[in-house]
Amino acid sequence: MARVLLELRDIKKSYENGSAKKVEVLHGINLKICQGEFVAIVGPSGSGKSTLMNILGCLDTPTEGSYIINSQSTSNMEPDELASLRRDFFGFVFQRYHLLTHLTASENVQVPAVYSNLEKNLRIERAHSMLERLGLKHKMNSKPNHLSGGQQQRVSIARALMNGGQIILADEPTGALDSKNGLEVMEILKELNSKGHTIILITHDAKVAAAARRVITIKDGMIESEFINDNGTSLNDFVRNYDDISFSENWVNSMFAFFDRFKESYKNAIRAMVSKRLRTLLTMLGIIIGIMSVVSVVAFARGASDKVIANISSMGSNTIMVLPGKYSGDVKASKVKTLTVKDILALKGQPFIDSVSPTVTCSGYVQRGNLEANTTVYGISSDYFSVYSKKAREGRLFSFDESAMNPQIVVIDANTRLALFPNEDAVGKHIMVRGRPLTVVGVLSGRGDISSSMRIYVPYSTLMTRLIKRDYLSSIIIRLKENFSPAVAEDSITNLLKARHGRQDFYLRTTDTVLRSITRTNTVFTLLILAIAFISLLVGGIGVMNIMLVSVTERTREIGIRMAIGARQSDIMTQFLIEAVTICVAGGIAGVTLSVIAGLTISHIFPSLPVSFSLASLIVALLTSSAIGMIFGYMPARAASKLNPIDALARE
Ligand code: ADP
Ligand code: MG
């Protein structure tokens, strides 16, 4: 007795037609199909043949009745179990071929094997030998639209055989072909049957059905008759001997196969994106702008705070500045005239103070012959040089005693030297500062650059009596002795000055207090940026989601074909997720690149706007963009994976 492969028991199928009315298309079909049979199902158009075949091939589910494959009922099978049957057990040949138009013949044939984890080399080898056997050796790399109908149908037969194709389900395989090609296809089916494949052929044409040994006629959703055609082919109970392929199922192979499927999905995603270039670019634009604005703002903010921190760090950690006013930004600070040279002398006597210098500044128009420069004049004591670790490159610096004695001397920086003494020695020469002659005694070290700001340093007494008339200081700068607690020193300084002034009309600035206030503003700023980033990326993400939904709709038929030949729901899902992530990451990379280019260009043109890109922020930007792809691609990808294969296939 022949082994029963497929058994339909009282299968009924109805469609919801329009609003409420159910239309029953199959009215209780009972059918057994044995291994090795060649069965033809004939009937007029609209009799329910395709509906029956879709149920046989697990593309569709019956409304009532049970379908048993290899003594296993299909009624409780999960979508992925059904996909596995379609992938490894059935092979479909459709009237309209249903090839994937953007893949070559060889790639089309390989798709089922990609889903069944066949190793790449074996897969290509097998696809090629299959195509060669069907006379398509010279067409391996042609796309379907470069193939004739007969050739396309042969490609689809090769695809049906790719994973074994124990049962070939052919729905009007000759329906779209001329008679010559039709005959060829029938010859191929007969040959396959002779090699042990079970063939179920569906046709409205009795002549085509005559190829089969067992012919079943169907009319209005019921089996009308059945007869044996003695001239037909059949190899009942043929021992299956067609070339078996073995799928190795250990986890190493599954891993490789997963990456391989991933790569295929990635290739598909790129192909889909390239084929719709403008649309992809516009979609990306949202992500590009979002990432670019965030990365740029972060870089400029970092640049600005780096600059401030660099300035402070040059001050050293054991340095304290005394400034007029009650706090930083006090508007009454300019009216405070109580910081004086006497305070300096009092501080100088404190045991914990290493150096102390007043600072009085004014602008200084400087002339030397017919050369001139605009500088800032610093009135200081010699301690200022030790606080800021400044050294003389030429000549000397002035001493503490000199600072108080009102001498007509000046120390200039390298920039000023370059501007006033381009080709000669500076030390010993006179320059006019605010109309007063001063002798240059020293030049500070550093490389000269006339486009940078220029500074000259005179004893505070000189500035306060000769250059401007003023008896109070702009600030006091103090360096503490090593190993002395800054907190204790701050208290002592505050108490001392408070006692001298009678009230607190000054405040102290230390590296710590400045850093703390920068960190505070930075945190606020960062939160603000994050809010903007969130909004702009949300907008970009919605754009991506929108385009992915369109893409799913456009490619519903492709999804249907992939499902028919065995794609799991997860395969479809990954394919669309990868596409969304690829768009977003490409947008992210473009955004990061553009913002680096723009940032560097801007800070090159405007040196006062430094930028600082941190590797971490660039990586975060890219991770964020792929997360956007995941989040906003999820819904469309899920929608694609939940499509019913037969509905998807029917969509043109
Ligand atoms: P055949 O393949 O024999 O030409 P089908 O199985 O395609 O016939 O269709 C049988 C009947 O079921 C037809 O009357 C058709 O209109 C109807 N039908 C098929 N698919 C659907 C569907 N998705 N929704 C509603 N009616 C359908
Ligand atoms: Mg049909």
Fill in the keyword field for this structure:
652 residues, alpha/beta, six-stranded mixed beta barrel, 20 helices, 48% helix, 21% strand, binds magnesium ion
Q: What does the model show?
A:
The protein has 652 residues and is α/β, with parallel strands linked by helices. It contains 20 helices and 20 strands. The chain has helices spanning 49-56, 79-88, 105-115, 120-133, 149-161, 179-194, 206-209, 251-275, 277-313, 341-348, 383-387, 400-404, 414-420, 460-467, 486-501, 511-554, 556-564, 569-605, 615-641, 645-650, and strands at residues 4-16, 22-34, 38-42, 64-69, 72-73, 90-93, 167-171, 198-203, 214-219, 222-228, 319-324, 353-368, 371-380, 392-395, 409-412, 430-433, 436-444, 455-459, 475-480, 506-510. It has a six-stranded mixed sheet with strand order 6-7-8-3-9-10, sandwiched between helices. It has a six-stranded mixed β-barrel with strand order 12-13-18-15-17-16. Helix 9 (277-313) packs across helix 18. The radius of gyration is 43 Å and the shape is rod-shaped. The two termini are 44 Å apart. Residues 235-248 have low confidence and may be disordered. Bound molecules: adenosine-5'-diphosphate (ADP) and magnesium ion (MG).
Task: Furnish the topology, listing elements before pairings.
Blueprint: E1 4-16, E2 22-34, E3 38-42, H1 49-56, E4 64-69, E5 72-73, H2 79-88, E6 90-93, H3 105-115, H4 120-133, H5 149-161, E7 167-171, H6 179-194, E8 198-203, H7 206-209, E9 214-219, E10 222-228, H8 251-275, H9 277-313, E11 319-324, H10 341-348, E12 353-368, E13 371-380, H11 383-387, E14 392-395, H12 400-404, E15 409-412, H13 414-420, E16 430-433, E17 436-444, E18 455-459, H14 460-467, E19 475-480, H15 486-501, E20 506-510, H16 511-554, H17 556-564, H18 569-605, H19 615-641, H20 645-650
Parallel strand pairs: 3-8, 3-9, 6-7, 7-8, 13-18, 15-17
Antiparallel strand pairs: 1-2, 1-4, 4-5, 9-10, 11-19, 11-20, 12-13, 12-16, 12-19, 14-17, 15-18, 16-17
Magnesium ion is lined by residues 49-50.
